[in-house]
Design the sequence.
C-alpha cells in the first residue's frame, strides 16, 4: 500500500493530494501525523491531477509532510443484533462504556436503493400515543413523516415520547427504534441517554449521537450509519424499525459547510444544489420490500430557520416525504404540550392505515369533522379581534369555544401520557358533542348513532 507525501493544500475539513494512482470516490483514507497518530478520511472528489480528501476528525495537526494512504474500500458499518440497547457516537464507536461491537456483517453505509416495483404499500397503523398524530395525522408503517419545528420548541421531547411509546397495536412482531441525533449539545445528549435508560426504551433501541463539537464531516456519515443499522435489523432480522433523526437542519448545515470548503457553486441560501438528491438518498431508504417481513419507518425532525416553512430544508423535505407534522410557537406560548398545529400538518398515507380492522370505522369521519370545526373556530378568533365576542351568533360561539377546548383537551397531554387510539377517538367525540348534531355534516348518521356520547347515554338508559 503506497504512502503519498504530496499534500498541496489544507482547507477546512479538506486535504488536497496530488500525483496519486487512480483512486475511487468514497474510498477510505488514513493520514499519519508527525506524532505517529492516525486520522481517518474519505475521498470526496477525484481527478487526474488532484484527490480531495475529507477528514473525519478535523485537519488540526495535519501538515504537508504527513503521509496519506488510500485503503481501497468504502466505509462499512459493523452490524450485529447485539447493537440493540447500545449508545454509539456519530462515527459508530461505543459511548456507553460497553465493549466494541462484534460484527455479524460489515455493510456499505450508502445502502441500496429500493426498487420501486418491489416496494409494498404501507398500511399498518403505528400508535404513538400522541392524539394529534394518531387521531389527525396518522403514522403508517413504512412511511416517512417529518416533524417541522423551530428553535426553542420541544421537538426533542416529542421525539423521545414517540421513541418510548411507538407500537403496532395487537402485533407481536419484533419492533425496534434507531435514534439518530446530529449536532446536539452535550446537555441534550445527556438528556437523551438518561431518558432512554430511565424508561427502559433503550432495550429495544440503537442510539447514535453526533455532538455539536464533533467534525461536520462526521455529521454527514451519522444518518447513513443509522440507516444501515436499521436496514440490517429490518431486512436481515425481520424487525419493524422506527428511525428518528434530530436535527436534519444540522445535517444540512454540515452539507453547506463542506460545499463552501470545496468552493462549489452555491444554490438557494448557500446550500449546495445537490441537497435535494442528498436528502432523498436518506429519506427514500424508508419502506417495505416484497418478500421481506421487516419495515423501516422514518420520522425526521428539523428546525425551520426563522420558523420559515418555505426555507430550503423544510421545502425540499416536504417534496420527498409523505406529509409533515408542524410544531407551532403560538401553542407553545400558551403552555400546551405537545404544541402540534394540526391545521398545516398532513399525513398523506393516513387513509391507508385507518379504518375497520386497523383503528376504528369512524376514524376518518371524526378526524375530518374535527379538522373542519377547529379551522372554523380559529377563523372566528380573527373576527372576534375585530368585532368582539358579543357580535357573534350562538352558533359561532359554539365553534369558537370548540377551538379552545380542542387545544386544551385533545392537543394538550403530558409528556408521559400514552393514549390509545380508542381513547383519542372517544375524546374527539366528546369534543364534537359540544356542537349541535346538525353541524356534524361530515359524519355518517350510523356513526353518530353508535358513538356520539348523547346517543350512547340514551341507549345505556
Sequence:
Amino acid at each position: 500500500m503506497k504512502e503519498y507525501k504530496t499534500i498541496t493544500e489544507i482547507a477546512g475539513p479538506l486535504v488536497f493530494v496530488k500525483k496519486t494512482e487512480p483512486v475511487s470516490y468514497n474510498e477510505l483514507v488514513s493520514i499519519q501525523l508527525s506524532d505517529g497518530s492516525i486520522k481517518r478520511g474519505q475521498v470526496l472528489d477525484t481527478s487526474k491531477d488532484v484527490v480531495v480528501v475529507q477528514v473525519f476528525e478535523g485537519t488540526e495537526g495535519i501538515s504537508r509532510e504527513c503521509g496519506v494512504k488510500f485503503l481501497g474500500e468504502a466505509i462499512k458499518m459493523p452490524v450485529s443484533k447485539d447493537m440493540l440497547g447500545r449508545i454509539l457516537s456519530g462515527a459508530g464507536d461505543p459511548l456507553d462504556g460497553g465493549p466494541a461491537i462484534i460484527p455479524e456483517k460489515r455493510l456499505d453505509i450508502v445502502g441500496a436503493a429500493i426498487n420501486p416495483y418491489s416496494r409494498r404499500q404501507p398500511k399498518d397503523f403505528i400508535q404513538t400515543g400522541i392524539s394529534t398524530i394518531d387521531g389527525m395525522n396518522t403514522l403508517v408503517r413504512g412511511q416517512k413523516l417529518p416533524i417541522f419545528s423551530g428553535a426553542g420548541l420541544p421537538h426533542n421531547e416529542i421525539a423521545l415520547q414517540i421513541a418510548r411509546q411507538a407500537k403496532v397495536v395487537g402485533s407481536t412482531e419484533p419492533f425496534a427504534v434507531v435514534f439518530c441525533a446530529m449536532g446536539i449539545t452535550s446537555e441534550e445528549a445527556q438528556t437523551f441517554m438518561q431518558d432512554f435508560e430511565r424508561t427502559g426504551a433503550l432495550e429495544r433501541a440503537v442510539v447514535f449521537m453526533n455532538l455539536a463539537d464533533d467534525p461536520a464531516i462526521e455529521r454527514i456519515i451519522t444518518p447513513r450509519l443509522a440507516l444501515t443499522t436499521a436496514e440490517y435489523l429490518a431486512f436481515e432480522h425481520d424487525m419493524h424499525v422506527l428511525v428518528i433523526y434530530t436535527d436534519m437542519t444540522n445535517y444540512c448545515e454540515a452539507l453547506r459547510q463542506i460545499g463552501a470548503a470545496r468552493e462549489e457553486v452555491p444554490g438557494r441560501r448557500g446550500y449546495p444544489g445537490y441537497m435535494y438528491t442528498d436528502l432523498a438518498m436518506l429519506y427514500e431508504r424508508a419502506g417495505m420490500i416484497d418478500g421481506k417481513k421487516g419495515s423501516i419507518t422514518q420520522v425526521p425532525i428539523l428546525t425551520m430557520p426563522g420558523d420559515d416553512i418555505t426555507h430550503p430544508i423544510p421545502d425540499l423535505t416536504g417534496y420527498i416525504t409523505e406529509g409533515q407534522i408542524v410544531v407551532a410557537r403560538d401553542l407553545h406560548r400558551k403552555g400546551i404540550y405537545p404544541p402540534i398545529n394540526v391545521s398545516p400538518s398532513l399525513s398523506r398515507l393516513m387513509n391507508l392505515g385507518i379504518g375497520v380492522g386497523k383503528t376504528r370505522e369512524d376514524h376518518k369521519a371524526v378526524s375530518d369533522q374535527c379538522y373542519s370545526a377547529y379551522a372554523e373556530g380559529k377563523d372566528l378568533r380573527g373576527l372576534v379581534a375585530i368585532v368582539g365576542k358579543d357580535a357573534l351568533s350562538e352558533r359561532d360561539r359554539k365553534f369558537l369555544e370548540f377551538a379552545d377546548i380542542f387545544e386544551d383537551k385533545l392537543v394538550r397531554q403530558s409528556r408521559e401520557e400514552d393514549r390509545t387510539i380508542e381513547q383519542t377517538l372517544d375524546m374527539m367525540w366528546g369534543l364534537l358533542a359540544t356542537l349541535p348534531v346538525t353541524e356534524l355534516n361530515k359524519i355518517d348518521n350510523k356513526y353518530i348513532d353508535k358513538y356520539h356520547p348523547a346517543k350512547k347515554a340514551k341507549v345505556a338508559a
Q: What stands out?
A: Residues 257 and 263 are 10 Å apart (CA to CA).
